[in-house]
Amino acid sequence: MDSSNPIERSSSSEISFKSASRSLSSNPSRASRGNSVRTGSFHDLGSRPVRLGSRGGDSEMFSASQKEISDEDARLVYLNDPAKSNERFEFAGNSIRTAKYSIISFIPRNLFEQFHRVAYIYFLIIAVLNQLPQLAVFGRGASILPLAFVLLVTAVKDAYEDWRRHMSDRIENNRWAWVLVNDQFQQKKWKDIQIGEVIKIKANDTLPCDMVLLSTSDSTGVAYLQTINLDGESNLKTRYAKQETISNIPEKDKISGLIKCEKPNRNIYGFQANMEVDGKRLSLGPSNIILRGCELKNTAWAIGVAVYCGRETKAMLNSSGAPSKRSWLESRMNSEIIALSLFLIALCTVVSVCAAVWLRRNSDELDTMPFYRRKYFRGSEPENYNYYGLVAEILFTFLMSVIVFQIMIPISLYISMELVRVGQAYLMIRDTQMYDEASNSRFQCRALNINEDLGQIKYVFSDKTGTLTENKMEFQCASAWGVDYSDGKISTQNQQVRCSVKVDGRIVRPKMSVKVDPQLLELSRSGGDSEEVKHVHDFFLALAACNTIVPLIIDDKSDPTAKLMDYQGESPDEQALAFAAAAYGFMLIERTSGHIIIDIHGERQRFNVFGLHEFDSDRKRMSVILGCPDGTVRVFVKGADTSMFSVIDRSLNKKVVRATEGHLHTYSTLGLRTLVIGMRDLSDSEFEDWHFSFEAASTAVIGRAALLRKVASNVERNLTILGASAIEDKLQQGVPEAIESLRTAGIKVWVLTGDKQETAISIGYSSKLLTNKMTQIIINSNSRESCRRCLEDALAMSKKLRAVSETSDNIGTSSDAARGPVLCCRVAPLQKAGIVALVKKRTSEMTLSIGDGANDVSMIQMADVGVGISGQEGRQARMGYMILYNFYRNAVFVFVLFWYALFACFTLTTAINEWSSMLYSIIYTSLPTIVVAILDKDLSRRNLLRYPQLYGAGQRQEAYNRKLFWVTMLDTVWQSLVVFFVPIFAYWASTIDVPSIGDLWTLAVVILVNFHLAMDIIRWNWIFHVAIWGSIVATFICVMILDAFPMFVGYWAIFHIMGEVSFWVCLLGIIITALLPRFVAKVLYQHFTPDDLQIAREVEKFGHQRDIAAEVEMNPIMEPPPRR
């Protein structure tokens, strides 16, 4: 998908289908460059200045350069006059804010976000009810403490995270910049910079705002910027000041003028403006603006005027702010909590209805009836308790039931989840496989809320540059004058050569070594006059000259007596080609405003640069017009094969053209990025015509881009083909293998990039995102309606492929074609976020975004997960189990209280000490589940990587789903019945008191739920033993301490009952009887219908992989149920 909007197309849209084939791709720079003066001489031109142009000031991709900016749509910026600039409209200051909260908004907003959890609302209602005298089952303060504690802990965590954002904002806003004040540059904080102020940036400084470039330390007005913080690309970009402003010295010359520019927008690749200086009206474009966040490199200083500040800068407009993310499990928990709430209401309704019947039947005996006793006999005369009538008593019974059974909804679960996430994050941070030794940096988990979502990802959205690739190009091979110097494959045996030259008496070698073909190297060194040798020389001359490379001489750390030649430019492709030319003896050693110097096998030759037409998305090629030492003028052109063959004269050397086409196809099938090189000589009249048109187009105020494009098209014709180059874009280590594993795991990978369509497709093949077995559906459109039609056609084609896949025996090939990856090209940062949002809205699948630059921030924030793929697998499974286990352990306890209420005349008298009720979820049972959720794992890293299909368990929500929830609840009912009735029957005829049997129930439930957890542990270690058996021991100790206080009901009860043998027999019988059905069901299930994880665990436990001849058969990755 190409989201660019080219102005000139033969048709409004196109859609093409390619099956079992791939398109040839080219990869020139997409750099945007403005105007600067380049001097040269040609016959009668003398030393008259000649302008070097390009698509320059207007962006045909994003702005309509043919249109004048109206006053209503324009921003007026007066140079060096911030007061007048802000007189009509008070523009935004340069202060930025990425934090979510302020001191005033923190409490209400944070509470609002926290109460998205349904359980919190539930416990708030419980706390309010418990404040009423008629319903005060527990102490009023005790009922508020659990909720208050949970809210406080979460608020402290959120406050800390936001405090870090505030600190980052403060550091950013308080940085210093040099601002022109009273004809002198003075230091001023970034936050105080205003629109219209003139700012001076020094080398290696970061730009504080978006500025129009006025002048630089270079006499031609060029500035070199590193935009890695903006788009993730480390190569340098060139920006230019207008010739009319580069000579002004702000401290001496009064700077004045007016800039009329477009209003702030998110397009980081486009800019449209006009500037009036000294009575002249100049057009401005993307090559004349430098953006906030970029760094000035290889330029001593640059001066510009602020046009966009603070939140109106393009970088900030592409940041959608810090979102509040919640994991899928947490969102799904809300529905389960609602179900438990309804179940709780049902229990309370049963108790209240039964209480109503009991009160009606025993209305005459309420004064002395056990469990009720309406009269109070302590005084001299009996007094009646407050009796509000039957209806009120029923209502009070219902509400008191809600309070007593409140732990059915486990508020401690949220604290447990936070602790588990912290533990998981720690393990991920300490993962040695996610440690970069070169930069001494580790993985960082900045959002603990969504760790468990890593186990359920269905869509991965990735940036290309710096994420899939290292953005480092390597020249691999070439086709020169119809001869392939690669033998159809990438040679790993060719020698690496770094030619050297002498500059100022010192040996200078290229910084990068390049593999060279011995035969081609010999031809390049040959001094013969044969046609083949001449064309080989012209081929490498084109590689060295047709670019925007700036050569820089740097120190060689390995050899103090030598120097290194480094090539800096906007495109890593150009850098690779320049280093390749140098390796073959054509070393670019100098570039000035009007000429370049190339050392050709020890002989320096000077070429006058009369003009340069840079790459644009319509022509898909670039050209340079050179005045050669022999007095001739030549135009050298390089570009994509699709555009170059349309301007090559096929009547000349047909065999060479056909051979080159075949070589290009071969290179493309190897995943290499290809360019075609051509040239022709210009006659005097042709040069004069071109020069006149070029001057007129370069100085045009309106429609400059279209005029320059037309001039370039006129000169780039009837070319003689010289050859083709093949470059490998170095992928990040392990990218093809990772993408293959993701595909095997059923994860769909989309690549969203700002690069050209050809570049994206080429990388798609080299990274194994695309394969020759897939059917390509390419959509290009420049309007909404045409795009809609193309998408409808594509969907129809996809449905046909899907229908074929359902009837085809070869499911893999057809299925990949119907459900293959997606490449989106020429997308702006916010468009990336829009694509992610579209998938989330239409599919309800879990999404993950990966990026490395500021242009990826919105995409990362929009996705469910905006972090890298973790090396710690199986996290969702353990977290899902922990949630179910928390529901289970609390439900067992509540059901015991419920059964007792039915035997206590429905009066909600509790046999269990109220302190034990409070400590149950805090001390008795909390630690084991947290430890297990953090440390237990399904399989080893090796097997998880070997069988990516195992990831499908998370996508299918096998560890946590509605069926498992209700099965767990049924098991809970059985276990609670066993816990309650075994002691009842055992002590039915005894004189044991209620607190004693309550202690027995408490201990039985704690031992039961811990044994339940122990049955499900996969990999035991000493920490698990300490946590589980230690919790049981801690429960015994706590119960004995509570019963040792005389002020509590049940004083010394536990010591009486523990002395009887029946007590221990009851505990043993409860554990065996309660867990037996679950144990039998688990054994039968794992034996007859094992899942993928169980099979892999058996293989890992009982045999080594090398001893197993047959492959383990995995279940196919099926589409998971929609997320709700």
From TrEMBL:
A GO molecular function held by the record: ATP hydrolysis activity
Catalytic residues in the record: 463 (4-aspartylphosphate intermediate)
Q: Which domain of life is it from?
A: Eukaryota
- The annotated region (Disordered) lies at 1-67
Give TM regions.
Answer: 118-136, 142-160, 337-359, 387-415, 887-912, 918-936, 964-988, 994-1015, 1022-1042, 1048-1076
Q: Where is the composition biased (Low complexity)?
A: 1-33
The record's EC number reads 7.6.2.1
Q: Where is the P-type ATPase N-terminal domain?
A: 77-143
Domain P-type ATPase C-terminal: residue ranges: 877-1090
- Catalytic function, reaction form: ATP + H2O + phospholipidSide 1 = ADP + phosphate + phospholipidSide 2
Q: Which cofactor does it need?
A: Mg(2+)
User: Mind telling me which SUPFAM superfamilies this protein's record contains?
Assistant: Calcium ATPase, transduction domain A, Calcium ATPase, transmembrane domain M, HAD-like, Metal cation-transporting ATPase, ATP-binding domain N
Q: Per UniProt, where does Mg(2+) bind? A: 463, 465, 852, 856
Entry membrane topology: Multi-pass membrane protein
Q: Among the entry's GO cellular component annotations, what is one?
A: plasma membrane
Q: Keyword annotations for this protein?
A: ATP-binding, Magnesium, Membrane, Metal-binding, Nucleotide-binding, Translocase, Transmembrane, Transmembrane helix
Please name the Pfam families in this protein's record: Cation_ATPase, PhoLip_ATPase_C, PhoLip_ATPase_N
**What are the BP-aspect GO terms?**
phospholipid translocation
Q: Which family does it belong to?
A: Belongs to the cation transport ATPase (P-type) (TC 3.A.3) family. Type IV subfamily.
Name listed for the protein in its UniProt record:
Phospholipid-transporting ATPase
Organism (species): Salix viminalis (Common osier)
